[in-house]
Amino acid sequence: MKTQFDVAIVGGGLVGLATACALSRYDITVAIIDTKVDEWQDFKFDDIGIRASAINGASQRYFSQIGIWHDLCASNRVHSFSEIGVWEKNGLAHLSAHAKDYGYENLGYIIENNLIAYHLYQLAAATDNITIFNQVAIDNNYTDDYAFLTLADNTTLQAKLIIGADGAHSWLRRHEKISVFERNYLHHAVITTVETQYPHQACARQIFYPNGIVAFLPLWQANKSCLVWSTKPAQAEILTSLTESDFCHELFKLAGDKVGQCQLVNPRMVFPLKARFAKQFIKHRLALIGDAAHTIHPLAGQGVNLGFQDSALLVATIKRLIDEKKDIGLMENLKSFQFTRRKDALVMLTAMRTIQDMFNGDNTFKKMVRTVGMNAIDNFSPIKKQLIKYAMQI
Predict the structure, then answer these.
(1) Is residue 346 classed as helix, strand or coil in its secondary structure?
(2) Fewer Cβ within 10 Å of end Cβ, the chain: N or C?
(3) pLDDT at 190 > cutoff 60
(4) d(CA 220, CA 109)
(5) 3-state SS assignment for residue 94
(6) What is the DSSP letter of 101?
(7) Does the structural domain 72-109+185-273+361-392 have CATH classification 3.30.9.10?
(8) What is the CA radius of gyration of the chain?
(9) pTM
(10) What are the residues whose beta carbons fall under 8 Å from the beta carbon of 354, sequence distance 6 or more?
């Protein structure tokens, strides 16, 4: 089996697979190392995935570049949303935006994560210059010219660059002793799929209340949405232990005026929410991308988009370096990638912290500030358009 590659990617999730597929278009040999990557080889078209992402314009263009956008659309499960609505429960703060008001076709796309992973996996498996290793990486070391990655079966892979795309608890990041700034959001996310009484009408809804945030991401079926309910850990534990009818009753109390009665379509999953920011995105012959480099609160749906933007810029950087006959693994040659992606991730982390802190609790002064602030933005079209354009990368 081939053991020498240009790039070895640890992690075969959405961002890792996308990076491999994008690199392979440039005749770059790639290894993917992940014991769970084969989970994506099948897709149950009769089921709806529990997790979905709001894909912005930049990610959509990246999917087109990679070559999976046509296949995603052909599944008839890609749903564009044309409107966003944000409200404060028992408050006066609100913000809404419709694509047509700004001359846009839409504001983004809601796509099931497992559908994206399925099409990326199919492409990777069919591409000659991508090799998939269903193994665990257990060690790595470096020389001036190469990186070496040892797998659990004692296979040693040689590459010019190792990419860490192995998630929030990245083995590679920990093994390299890269320190991480962490901030606990003191929220857990309860994620599931719901069928709502009222059709979603291609509107992504978000409702703030003193203990958390409820978000509905409109799926390809008119009355089905991905639900992301972030709340305090104790409350999240209660919500997951409730019967389905009691859970839906609690949801109705918060969002019933917007969506009507709800029924659960999928089981409930719970994820602790924590902000993370690696103090280095690069080292000698190493680059971190996606959740291995940063994680943010899901309230704006930007986490996976940040990861795809990491991937796209790193791929473009590698391609440029190869064209210029420069070493793709030297820190000096990757500094521009690190500078740009650290800056963008830091901006988003700061924005998420500010929004969550502002909407946390029922303080009277906070309520006044968010009411005045959100309503001012809602009524001042130029600022609102710039915020929408930035968030959705239209």
Answers:
(1) helix
(2) N
(3) yes
(4) 10
(5) strand
(6) G
(7) yes
(8) 21
(9) 0.93
(10) none
φ/ψ of residue 68, rounded to 5: -110, -5
Q: At a CB cut-off of 8 Å and minimum separation 6, what does 253 contact?
A: none
Task: Compute the residue count for the chain.
Answer: 394
The per-residue pLDDT for 382 is: 62
Residue the block writes with tokens 């992606």 = 341
Helix, strand or coil, per DSSP, at residue 12: coil
User: Tens of pLDDT along 349-394?
Assistant: 887 777 666 656 665 655 555 555 555 555 556 655 666 666 666 6
Backbone angles phi, psi at 283, to 5 degrees: -140, -175
Q: Which fold has domain 7-65+113-181+275-353?
A: FAD/NAD(P)-binding domain (3.50.50)
> What are φ and ψ of residue 153, in 5° steps?
-90, 15
- In sequence order, the 6+-apart residues with CB closer than 8 A to the CB of 220 are 76, 77, 78, 79, 110
Retrieve residue 226's tokens. Answer: 């991905």
Per-domain residue ranges of the chain: 7-65+113-181+275-353, 72-109+185-273+361-392
- The rounded distance, in Å, linking the Cα atoms of 11 and 35 is 9
The predicted-structure confidence for 218-272, as pLDDT tens digits, reads as follows 999 999 999 999 999 999 999 999 999 999 999 999 999 999 999 999 999 999 9
- The token pair at 217 is 């991401």
pLDDT over 90 (residue 19): yes
Q: Is the CB of residue 214 less than 8 Å from the CB of residue 207? A: yes
With vertex at residue 75, the alpha carbon angle to CA 315 and CA 32, rounded to the nearest 5 degrees, is 35
SS3 for 15-39 is HHHHHHHHHHCCCCCEEEECCCHHH
The DSSP 8-state label assigned to residue 4 in this structure reads B
Helix locations, the chain, DSSP H: 14-24, 57-66, 69-74, 113-125, 171-175, 233-241, 244-259, 303-323, 331-359, 364-379, 381-392
Mean pLDDT computed over every residue of the chain: 90
